[in-house]
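Ops channel
N.P.: pipeline sanity check, posting one input/output pair.
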């Protein structure tokens, strides 16, 4: 679908498609004759929708598997079917395009701009959905989808313990909002790896951390995590502070959490 919509940036391509559709009709009619047919033209809103579908069909027919399945159809037949699906005939479409090409090319450019806008919006939605699906497929984060305070407590902390099956470089990414009235000292994420036979008492390899900003705004953070063969447990806290949480007012929100495999193992 992204390959189809990537064609949306070429107005010249759409013009060529329309010229193919009206290739059997001459453009030598008089200006006066065409103006007489203006009341029978396809309405602008319908024309935009029709041209959008034609452009999508052209993109689909460029895909090898679809092209092979519809090899018996030529371009004119395909476009004619789309026109008829919208409730019009090829003759009406020809007259509509002839009118705009000869009498109002500026209006035709505006119509093309609308088609481009629709296709660009569709492409943006497809790309966004693709990113969401990719995140769901590769996200190895096993914890909660978000953490917040004042609900955050000793029993419901941001601590996590993850067993990694494949050594390598991972990226822990999330969004965090720390509000100005938060009383925690030096709030930050703390992440370390350790071996499975000494999770609590063995050697820890801490990842380089950073301090959160207390400005009440949402910030996106990422933390690289190196997981080695002999240290496949990743543990830590998304929200760690230097002072005791007892009696303190914490005001935070952590969300959009993901743990994604980035590259092969570093032994």
């Amino acid at each position: 679908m992204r390959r189809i919509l990537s064609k949306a940036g070429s107005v010249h391509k759409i013009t060529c498609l329309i010229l193919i559709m009206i290739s059997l009709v001459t453009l030598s009619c008089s200006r006066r004759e065409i103006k007489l047919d203006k009341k029978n033209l396809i309405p602008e809103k319908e024309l935009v929708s029709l041209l959008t579908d034609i452009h999508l069909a052209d993109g689909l027919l460029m895909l090898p598997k679809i092209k092979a399945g519809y090899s018996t159809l030529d371009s004119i037949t395909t476009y004619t079917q789309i026109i008829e699906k919208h409730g019009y005939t090829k003759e009406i479409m020809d007259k509509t395009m002839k009118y705009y090409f000869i009498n109002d090319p500026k209006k035709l450019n505006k119509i093309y701009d609308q088609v481009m806008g629709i296709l660009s919006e569709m492409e943006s939605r497809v790309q966004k959905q693709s990113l969401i699906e990719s995140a769901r497929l590769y996200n190895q984060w096993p914890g909660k989808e978000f953490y917040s305070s004042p609900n955050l407590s000793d029993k419901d902390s941001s601590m996590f313990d993850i067993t990694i099956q494949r050594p390598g470089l991972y990226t822990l990414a999330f969004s965090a909002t720390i509000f100005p009235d938060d009383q925690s000292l030096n709030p930050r994420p703390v992440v370390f790896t350790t071996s499975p036979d000494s999770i609590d008492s063995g050697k820890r390899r801490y990842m380089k951390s950073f301090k959160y900003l207390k400005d009440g705004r949402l910030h996106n953070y990422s933390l690289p995590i190196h997981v080695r063969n002999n240290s496949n447990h990743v543990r830590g806290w998304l929200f760690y502070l230097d002072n005791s949480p007892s009696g303190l007012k914490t005001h935070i929100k952590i969300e959009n959490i993901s743990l994604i495999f980035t590259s092969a193992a570093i032994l």
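N.P.: looks fine end to end. Residues 105-138 form the longest helix (34 residues).
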